[in-house]
Amino acid sequence: MTLTTRAVVASGGWPLVGHTLALLRRPLEFLASLPAQGDLVEIRVGLQRMWVVCCPDLTHRVLRDGRAFDKGGPFFDQMRIILGHGLGTCAHGPHQRQRRLLQPAFSRDRLAVYATEMSRQLDTVLGTWRDGQVIDVLAAMDEITTRVSARTLFTTHLSPQQSADLLHSLTALLEGAFLRMIMPTWLARAPLAVNRRFNRALSTADALTYGIINAYRHDGVDHGDLLSMMLAARDEHGDALTDTELRDQVFTFWLAGTETTASLLAWSLHLLGQHPQAARRVQTEVDGVLGGRVAGHDDVARLDYTTRVLTETLRLYPPGWLFTRVNTTEATLADRTLPAGTVLLYSPYLIHRRGDLYPDPDHFDPDRWLPDHTTTLPRGAVVPFGGGARRCIGDTFAMLEATLVLATITARWQLDPLPGAITRPRPRATLRPRPLHMRLRQR
Fold it and tell me: Which of 28, 52, 199, 386 is in the most buried spot, having the most CB atoms within 10 Å?
């Protein structure tokens, strides 16, 4: 695809509120409609102007140059209230130091250790399932990913109740973050119910996290988990992470390891329930590879179709569906010169639903990810984990966990949709499904 030069103002704006109502009422449909209008489309949220990047070339440029297009704008303003200045939300300046300190935690050897814990926790949860039981799929995936995150982040210092409290707090924070992103600044400070819930959840999560960090410092023991590695990490000057930096990293990895991975798994099981032929192909593959046992690290390389199912799910329902950036210097995108401080918005959901990139884009087709089918995709067309130097450090961890979970569930269980049941996306700070209930059938 060649770079085009159409920069336009989106249609349908209202005086004073701009496109706020469209973003509140039908954000996914609104964003998906913008590429037909231009490659760089101006929208207004209240009185604030933003430019939506609608084509892969411009998306790649914004993601590639993290210095010129830094993390900022309404999305990251809200996420920094939750996640602080951790690896996923910090500005360009401190990112390299943080990445260097944390990268060893995601080495191949460490991932193999995490996979063992993933398999152990997965086996425990699936042991509680019963034939004929109706489960809330999202809640079940939250339970699995929460247990995995708890055991890889803090091996010994998180009780089941604390784990649940932290998950519920982060869920409430993400619910409020999207609404506060669209609210006028003064309204986000008003004593509204959504703001009170947000502040209570932040206080609960902070208290839990700082308590765990203090306990680890007091023990002085290497537990072989992520927090122990972060406590031991030193930069080139011999400096360690402060308690605030540790808190921010813990929040970041907890969110990435629970909320987003659980959403990916829930959507995958929903799609397989809607597409029996694809489900049978996954069953055939996992039966040949696993023979009914729990999947392990060495199995992933042979689970080709299962991996394609997850990749196609990320295309259709990327958990991170909307982000903002701010250009730090004057820049020209498409035919428009943008002064420093301009807010840009990019959306993996928007890019992944372009019909010129993905034929029949709303159709679930894992085989579109066969190697010979992806060679024509331009840079910037596949961005579920971002790109450039700021690509998610935990992308391999997330895909490893999701592959082990989906393969093991499919080897043991068939999840059937309930008659007449319909689920729809719930776009907030992450893209979660609305209530999703399915019936377990033991294989």
Answer: 52
